[in-house]
Amino acid sequence: FRDGDNAPMAFVELVDRPIVEVSTPAPKEEVVAE
Questions:
Q1: What is the CA radius of gyration of the chain?
Q2: Backbone angles phi, psi at 33, to 5 degrees
Q3: Positive or negative, the Cα torsion across 26, 28, 29, 34?
Q4: Span between the terminal Cα atoms of the chain, in Å
Q5: What is the DSSP letter of 4?
Q6: pTM above 0.70, yes or no
Q7: I need a labelling partner for 5 at 20 to 30 A (CA). Which of 11, 12, 13, 32 fits?
Q8: How far is residue 1's CA from residue 11's CA, in Å, rounded to a whole number?
């Protein structure tokens, strides 16, 4: 990750994604692709 705006943005995405996956069941294919 870059030092700057991209670092916090990526961190937020990593934190938010698991919560979103739990609330809304995502297709297994997408999870495997990640």
A1: 12
A2: -60, -35
A3: positive
A4: 16
A5: S
A6: no
A7: 32
A8: 9
